Amino acid sequence: MRIFRYLLPAAVVVCLLAAAPAKSHAQVTVAVAPVCPYGYYDYEPYNCAPYGYYGPEWFSDGIFIGAGPWFHGHEGFYGSVNHDFDPHFGYHGEFPARGEAFHEPEDHWQSFHATHMRDGHGHERPHEQ
Length: 129
Known about the structure:
Blueprint: H1 2-19, E1 59-60, E2 63-64, E3 79-81, E4 116-118, E5 124-126
Antiparallel strand pairs: 1-2, 3-4, 4-5
């Protein structure tokens, strides 16, 4: 009987420790906007978009001003995009590499044809003609 006097409290302590929640370690991720010459798609994994996907209102002096979680444009902003250059809509062409230099073609946006309007956060509305 003496053994139960010592064994029972030890068993209770072991059960309480086993039932206690484990300390979780928070996972912290710092997201950095990708450096893409013609912008990046506003959905994960934020791949670089080719020239022709975004219209000129998305750029300032050849620098892409944003899309996705990093975009902080003015409220109500919608810019033109061309879904012909979106892999969700069948595009299978080349994509620029991250960090590649911006090269503005000679047409200077004259050949851009918008199909939709996007707000940079994945929301879309029909293209305004």
